[in-house]
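Long-time lurker, first post. I've been practising inverse folding by hand and with some scripts of my own, and I keep getting stuck on stretches where the structure tokens seem ambiguous. Below is the full token string for one chain I'm working on. Before anyone asks, I'm not after the true native sequence, just a reasonable design that respects the backbone. If someone could post their per-position residues I'd love to compare against what I wrote down in my notebook.
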């Protein structure tokens, strides 16, 4: 089978990626000829070498953008890498209808060791790692290419808060968190509280929910959870050379920046 036929077959099955092992398994050509064909189709813009040995197929409807929605290939990418993953942060928010801003990057959370970010053609993927892999709050969604994993609304919110210094700050994400929390059910938050390890992020979340006048049931559940623990003052916006001062709220959050919706 020729590479062009192989790609047509993949697209007919709504599969938008492949790896070299899959190609070698069906091709009668030698490895040198396969490499030459891959190079030719890469120059034509029909495929993108995303990671060593892993390729994206760019069908005609995406040829202008030269970029695929990440949900069409992320499952296959992480099967190839052999790691758990979930689409998270701004990418998850956008897929859940809370992405106000045009994001040029895709965000994926996985386990250590750190993965190098990918910037190939118009594809730009930023990887975040966590050693505390979620025991709950990862859900499956369906795309044209099959199922993929994504953080639910409450995990997306606390992930944004936890990584705020790398993502433009709390004000950039305030409107997104407000929309996400409208989708959070009490059970979702209970699930999160059963395993989530970062108490400071929960304090900031509680403070923000109060400021946004979110569902009082969610706020009370967070308060009851923190009442049973020992927690210490934290800055709303972490700064490397700044320590929290006096606090006058239940959450022990030192409001060191003015909350302003960036939209």
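-- Answer (accepted) --
I ran through it position by position. Result:
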């Amino acid at each position: 089978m020729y590479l062009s036929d192989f790609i047509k077959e993949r697209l007919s099955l709504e599969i938008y990626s492949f790896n070299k092992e899959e190609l070698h398994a069906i091709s009668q050509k030698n490895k040198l000829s396969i490499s030459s064909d891959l190079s030719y189709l890469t120059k034509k813009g029909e495929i993108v070498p995303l990671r060593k040995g892993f390729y994206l197929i760019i069908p005609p409807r995406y040829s202008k953008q030269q970029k695929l929605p990440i949900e069409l290939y992320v499952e296959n990418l992480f099967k190839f890498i052999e790691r758990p993953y979930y689409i998270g942060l701004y990418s998850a928010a956008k897929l859940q209808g809370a992405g106000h801003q045009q994001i040029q990057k895709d965000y994926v959370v996985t386990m250590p060791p750190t993965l190098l970010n990918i910037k190939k053609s118009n594809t730009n993927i930023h990887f975040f790692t966590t050693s505390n892999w979620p025991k709950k709050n990862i859900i499956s969604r369906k795309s044209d290419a099959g199922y993929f994993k994504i953080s639910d609304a409450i995990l997306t919110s606390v992930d944004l808060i936890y990584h705020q210094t790398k993502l433009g700050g709390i004000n950039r994400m305030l409107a997104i968190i407000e929309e996400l929390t409208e989708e959070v059910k009490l059970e979702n938050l209970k699930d999160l509280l059963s395993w989530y390890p970062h108490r400071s992020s929960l304090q900031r979340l509680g403070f923000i929910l109060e400021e946004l006048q979110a569902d009082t049931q969610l706020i009370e559940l967070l308060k009851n959870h923190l009442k049973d623990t020992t927690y210490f003052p934290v800055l709303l916006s972490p700064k490397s050379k700044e320590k929290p001062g006096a606090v006058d709220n239940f959450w022990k959050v030192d409001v060191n920046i003015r909350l302003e919706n960036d939209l």
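A couple of notes from the structure itself: The chain has a mean pLDDT of 92. The domain at 70-254 is CATH 3.30.460 (Beta Polymerase; domain 2). Happy to go over any region you disagree with.
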